[in-house]
Amino acid sequence: MKMTLSRFLVPALTVCLLSLNKAFSQEQPLEAAVTFSEEVIPNYHYEYIPDFTFDQVAKRVRAMNTEMPFELNDRIFSFIQYFTVRNRDYTKMVLARKDKFFPLFEETLARHEMPRDIEYLSIIESALNPQVKSRVGAMGLWQFMPATGRMYGMYVNEDIDDRMDPEMSTEAAAKYLKSLYRMFGDWEVALAAYNCGPGNVRKAIRRSGGKKTFWGIYDYLPKETRGYVPQFQAMMYVLNHLEEHNLNLEEPTYPIDYDKVRFDRAFRLEKLAELTDLCLKDLEELNPSIKKRIIPETNRSMAIRIPKTKSLYLKENLAWISDSLGNRPNVLLASTSELIEITPVAKAVTTSAERITYKVKSGDVLGSIAAKHGVSVNQIKEWNNLNSNLIKVGQTLYINSGKTSIPSQSNSSTLADNSKPSTSGPKTYTVKPGDSLWIISQKHSLSVEQIKRLNNLNSNNIKPGQRLIIG
C-alpha cells in the first residue's frame, strides 16, 4: 500500500512543483524567481467598504440640511447601496468631475432662487459629461432633446451644438425646472416631469385619483421615471456623506479659469492655438459645444472661452490675431465648414484715377486687399462703411487710390507703403519698444502674414532692435 501510494504521490507532487515554478518564471526573470525556502508575504489589494444599516442611513438623512423633500425608503436605500458598494467606480468618476461644474450650477441655481441640491440631477442625467449623447438623441450635461433645446435658445448645426455648452444648458435647465415646479408645486414631481415630460405626469396624477406627490403617483409613472427620482435622492445622500462610505477622492479635477472673447469671424481652433501658443486641448475642454474644432460662418459671433492666463495677451493683441485668423493664404473657410483650396487669379481692373472699384474674390481678406493697393485695412473699412472685417465673394469695394490697375499677386508684397517702391534692395524696419506685428503691418500697409513670410517667422514674437524686411 505504501509503495502504491508513493507511486502516485511523487509524480503528482513533482508536476505541482514544476507548474508552480513555471507560473513564477512567466511573471519575472528566472534569476529573480522566488525559491520555496523564502518567506512569501501576501499583498492584498482591496478597498475598505464600510458596512451600514437602514437605520444609520435614515438618521443621517434626517440630519441633512436640504430644501428638497427626502424621506428614506427601501427604493432609495437600494440605490444608496448601489452607488456606495456595487458601483463605487461610477461614484468616483463623477466625484472627479464634480468641481469642474458644481460652481456653475450653484451660481445659476442661486440666481434663480432654486434649491441648491438640484445640482445633483446632472449626475443622474449625464455623469457630468457635457458631450454625452443618449440613445434617443438627448445631449449635454442636462440632456436636452433638440426641440426642447430650441425652446431655450440652444441651436444645433453641423459644427456647433449649444446643448453641450455648460453655461447655456445649465441656464436652460434651471428655467425649465422652475417652470415645471410652478406647474406642479412640488420639486420631486418637477424632477419626474423633467425626465418623462409634463404630459406623462398629468396622466399619472389623473390615474392616481388626483394625488400630487411623487410617491403618491409613483405606481402610475413610466418605469424609468420611477427609478429616476430615487437615484437623484440617493446621489444627494452619498455626496453629503462621502467619509462615512470611504469615498474620499485623492485627485479631483478643477475647472480652468477663463474669459470670453469674440473674434467675429469663422476660423479653426488649431489656427487660434498656433497664433497664441494656447493649448488646443484646453480650448476644446473650455468649448465643448464646438464639435469639429471649427467656428463656422453661421456662428461667427459666438464667444470663445480662453484660459485666463492668456486672456490679457489676447485682448491686447486682438486686432492682429483676429485679422490673422482669417488671413490664411489661398484658403477660404466656407460656411459648409470645409477648408477649400483656392487658386488666386490676378486681374487688372481699370478704373478712374480717383477711386478704384474692386470685386472680392474667393480667398480675399481685407488684409490682402489692403496690401495689394498700398492702403490700410482701416481705410478700406472707412471708405466702405464696414463695421467689421467680414467681406463676401462678389462684394464691391471702393478704394481711393491714384493707381489704374491692381498689382498682381506676385509683386503685391513688394510695396512697403504709399510711396514709390524701393529700388535699392529690401526695405527694413527696426522694431521699437511697444511694437507688435499688427502695429508694424498697419504702419507699412502689409498684412501680418506677409511680414511673417518675408522674414521666415514661425510665431508672432518680435523683440525691440530686431530688423524686419517690410518690402
Q: What keyword list fits this structure?
A:
471 residues, mainly alpha, Lysozyme, 4 domains, two-stranded antiparallel ribbon, two-stranded antiparallel sheet, 10 strands, 8% strand, disordered N terminus
What does this structure look like?
- It contains 19 helices and ten strands.
- By secondary structure, it is mainly alpha-helical.
- It has four domains: 1-45, no CATH class; 54-245, Lysozyme (Orthogonal Bundle); 258-316, no CATH class; 355-469, Roll (Membrane-bound Lytic Murein Transglycosylase D, Chain A), CATH 3.10.350.10.
- The strands form five sheets. Strands 1-4 form a two-stranded antiparallel ribbon. It has a two-stranded antiparallel sheet with strand order 2-3.
- A hairpin with a 5-residue loop joins β5 (331-333) and β6.
- It is elongated.
- The model is unreliable at 1-38, 327-353 and 402-423 (pLDDT under 50).
Question: What would a concise description of this structure say?
Answer:
The longest helix is centred in the N-terminal third of the chain and has 26 residues. Helices cover 44% and strands 8% of the residues.
SSE topology:
Layout: H1 2-27, H2 54-63, H3 74-86, H4 88-111, H5 121-126, H6 146-151, H7 166-184, H8 187-196, H9 198-207, H10 214-217, H11 223-240, E1 258-262, E2 267-268, H12 269-276, H13 280-286, E3 294-295, E4 303-307, H14 308-316, H15 318-325, E5 331-333, E6 339-341, E7 355-359, H16 366-373, H17 377-383, E8 396-400, E9 428-430, H18 437-443, H19 448-454, E10 467-469
Antiparallel strand pairs: 1-4, 2-3, 5-6, 7-8, 9-10
Helix pairs in contact: 3-4, 3-11, 4-7, 7-8, 8-9, 8-11, 16-17
